[in-house]
Amino acid sequence: MKQTLLLLPGDGIGPEVIAEVTRLVDLLAPDLQIEEGLVGGASYDAHGTPLTDETLKRALASDAVLLGAVGGPKWVGTARDKRPEAGLLALRKGLDVFANLRPAFCFPALVSESSLKPEVVEGLDIMIVRELTGGVYFGTPRGIDEKGGLRRGYDTAIYTHPEIERVTRVAFEIARGRSGRVCSVEKSNVMDSGLFWRQEVTLAHAELGAGVDLSHMYADACAMELVRAPKQFDVILADNLFGDILSDEAAMLTGSIGMLPSASLGAEGTPGLYEPVHGSAPDIAGKGIANPCAAILSFEMALRWSLGRAKVADALFAAVGVALDKGARTKDLGGELSTREMTDAIIAAL
Ligand code: ATP
Ligand code: MG
Fold first, then answer.
1. Which letter, b or e, does each residue of 180-202 get, where b requires 16 or more Cβ atoms within 10 Å of its Cβ?
2. Where do the annotations place NAD(+) binding (predicted)?
């Protein structure tokens, strides 16, 4: 049966960068069945909701979903549950993608783009695995209320055994295809949920961690080490909150946001959700100058993690590196190339 890739270009520069991906699909995976749908503001404008049941159904029936970006000034006043961002959250929830993968890779040609010293980032290659569906962002009780005459606000940090085990399993699997090292991050010194996290990861390692070298670090120490000596890390495993913060921090070690892909994976055999880390970038939308690399590298991750085409993914990743080596740069990287010309350079390298 044909593999299906559902494209959800979304808003702003989303459609511009996803259009470039379709050129690479034609070249690298012409047998893929490509479908297209609406998400975010584009879906709201057409259907009055940022994600229709129909689109979610098609996402669930596909092998992988590649999203561009959602949001923009046009929809700022929209009710919270109708905002473009709500469409993305509903999609993540509907696909039950619990493991968010964010690589922090420094392409040799972009070493000078980093705000850190070249020797600190040269050869940097980290994968952050963030738990995406649990923890303090979703725990209950939560609220803002009044008790004993005091106004207060609170959230609940909570994880269950299966939630930690399944994301740990993903981190181990990814580590096995890399240097085999996983550093699990929490605050077990001050949080019970953090202590539980450490215990569960340690247990999972005894059971499922063959070939994986596991270490533990407090999240604050990890934040510091990421800037001081980031190359010590291979895979970093973190909960929703710390993973959110640390993946943004790690991203900035490597240069432009226009280069950064992400993947969100669910249970084995279910479609993964792939998207650039950047947003809809309304300030440059429609100008044809957006960097397509984050979207192209998101497609690269889809080839690798959902479509079982690691060799093609390797070739595409290498081609991006070669194009950069040859000086191909969009505006965000200090160059002059248009979105389309940047892709041309990658295609030429392929
Ligand atoms: P969101 O809330 O959707 O994350 P944001 O404003 O926080 O939006 P982005 O939309 O990612 O973040 O934009 C941040 C800045 O980075 C903007 O100045 C934008 O032009 C720039 N930017 C984002 N993506 C790209 C890209 N692919 N190529 C070039 N510049 C980009
Ligand atoms: Mg943002």
1. eebbbbbbbeeeebbebbbebbe
2. 72-85, 279-291
pLDDT of residue 198: 98
CATH tag, 1-98+266-350: 3.40.718.10
The topology under which CATH files domain 100-258 is Isopropylmalate Dehydrogenase (3.40.718)
Ligand 2 centre and the CA of 277: distance in Å? 8
* Residues of the chain below pLDDT 50: none
One-letter amino acid at 155 equals D
> Closest Cα partner for 272 from 300, 246, 294, 242?
300
Which atom of ligand 1 sits closest to the CA of residue 69?
A: 3
The candidate with the shortest Cα–Cα distance to 260, out of 103, 126, 66, is: 103
User: Which ligand sits closest to the CA of 339?
Assistant: 1
In this prediction, residue 342 carries a pLDDT of 98
Taking the centre of ligand 1 as the mean of its atom positions, its distance from the CA of residue 280, in whole angstroms, is 6
